[in-house]
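Collaborator request, handled under Task 6.
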Amino acid sequence: MKHPVSDAVDMAAAAEQLYNDPDRIPVTKILIRFSEILKEIQMTNRRKYITKNGRAVAVIAPLVEAAIVDDVRNKNTLIQGER
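Structure tokens returned to the collaborator:
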């Protein structure tokens, strides 16, 4: 069994890695740099997670990714309609 202190250290390391993720952007920075962030998403095709009070609340994703999600949802709707 792990010691509670080592569990806390592991959790702190995981939290630091999560919050240092360049794809997580606080809503305040989104408001200031929106156009620049959109350009970066367009160029890299990587999604960005918008955070509020340190918690992810939304995602800005490349249009290709949104099309894939829509396609999957439409197929699931068709499958459910067949049942």
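The cover message to the collaborator said: "The helical segments are 4-19, 27-44, 63-82. The chain has one domain: 23-82. Please let us know whether this matches your experimental observations."
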